[in-house]
Amino acid sequence: MKAMNPKAKTYFWSALAAVLTYVLLAIELYRELHPLTNKGYLTVFLFPLGPAVLVSTAINLKLMKPKFKKYNQRMILGLVAYILGIDLLHHISLPAAPYKYLLVLLPILPLIYICFTIIRVVADLDEMWQKIHLEAMAFSGIATGFTCISYDFLYDVGAPKLSLEAGFFLMWIYYFIGLFFSRRRCR
Amino acid sequence: MKNKLRELRAAKEWSQSDLADKLDVSRQTVNAIETEKYDPSLPLAFKIAKLFKKSIEEIFESSED
Question: The pTM is what?
């Protein structure tokens, strides 16, 4: 550890904190949702990713350029508001009135804020990074679309029913695959 | 597209980060242009030419030429 420069040290601690957050949350969710259904497995494996990224980003903030630091602070704020909103909804009993549909959609407001922040981040990137992200988004959109259509055919012949959330996570997985290949071409 | 960006930067004794800051792009973008993995847009090519006080043709050369 002594040989590490301060930047590498921060990356090391942020990665360690992210892994610990992920493992602890996954264990906690596993305990809470046991025995697991298909959706439960998805929640246990994927839900802790958000808080883990959040913790890692918060530790790395001091290494970021001022403009990206600002955007990351906004992202953290949005994600914390979203997580608190979801948590609140789990702890209150919803009224039977029709406005319960509006109430359950309240945590989406921080997500809209996050979407606008992401759009600003992309607009502030330089031209090469904009191209890389655009290619990744195009790949993600097309691949998710084709996977959904393929799954529809499989479902018609008896494949198990999957949660709609799977499509959302799939989109992000394809996005990172696209980002990896697009980035590699410009390296 | 071939270019002389690496030679020009070396002549000025600038690091890739120095050049990236002057052009308001990322260091990775400068590296990608130097290694000819990425062709800059016309506005960025003009910015580079202006920074080195040369014409675009003196810095960039089409691979087909």
Answer: 0.76
